[in-house]
Amino acid sequence: MHLHTPAPPIDPAQQRQLDRRRWRRAFNLSLAAVLALLAVYSAQSAFDVNAWTVRPHLVAGLRGVLTAPLLHGSVDHIASNAIALLLLGTLTIAQYPRALVRTVPLAWIGSGLGAWWLGEAGSSHLGASGVINGLLFMVLTLGIVRRDRPAVAAAMLGLTLFGGALMSVLPHEPGVSWQSHLGGAVGGVIGGLWARHADPMPPRVRYSWEDEEDVVDDDVDAPIDAPHRDASRISWG
Q1: Fewer Cβ close by (within 10 Å): the C or N end of the chain?
Q2: Is residue 159 in a domain?
């Protein structure tokens, strides 16, 4: 597989400063999202949580498609999702800010619809893990379809940190909503394919032999004209 090799920056010191700023901003936005989840969790005692979860096959349960990712069932539940959101959120915001904007709604709605359609009647589904799964599958999809080195590195990092989540789209553990994980993963793949060109590719390094090939191609494509003969120089015998 040929990888798109980024060209070295013109000003490495300035590029390092821009990269630090980009990653700091991504971390701060991810931390804000985590704090928002914690704020909602701290307020859950004030309302009926079950009414806002995804309840499969019930029309009233469809409103949970919009609200269930904000709710969590325990401290352990929100802690695991908060860590994953902080890490994957930082990675995706820094690497694919435009693709992320398109993918999050797809993963959000996909996780809810997956739980509503595939879940067992009488169950309730809540938590942000389906959306987080969508972020992971978006990163993996973009690593495959873009094939530039930063994209492949991001995919490998996501796979190293959360590779176990790949199996979460299948029934494997009681009490874990594989249905929402599957729906979020589908949304992540669709978002990755749809937004694969949303974020610009890094400038590609160009080698000298490529310029030589272009010159050869231009020479080959140029029309070959017969040599022009000056009539005044033709001798008749």
Answers
A1: C
A2: yes
Asked if residue 183 is part of any domain, the answer here is yes
Q: Residue type for 91, please?
A: L
Number of structural domains, the chain?
1
> How does pLDDT run across 87-141, given as a tens digit for each residue?
999 999 999 999 999 999 999 999 999 999 999 999 999 999 999 999 999 999 9
Residue 113 lies in a domain: yes
Distance CA 124, CA 18 (A): 44
Q: What is the 3-state secondary structure (H, E, C) of the chain?
A: CCCECECCCCCHHHHHHHHHHHHHHHHHHHHHHHHHHHHHHHCHHHCCHHHHCECCCCCHHHHHHHHHHHCCCCHHHHHHHHHHHHHHHHHHHHHCHHHHHHHHHHHHHHHHHHHHHHCCCCCCECCCHHHHHHHHHHHHHHHHHHCEHHHHHHHHHHHHHHHHHHHHHCCCCCCCCHHHHHHHHHHHHHHHHHCCCCCCCCCECCCHHHHHHHHHHHHHHCCCCCCCCCHHHCCCC
> CATH no. for residue 29?
1.20.1540.10
Residues 148-159: pLDDT tens digits? 888 999 999 999
Global pTM reads 0.81
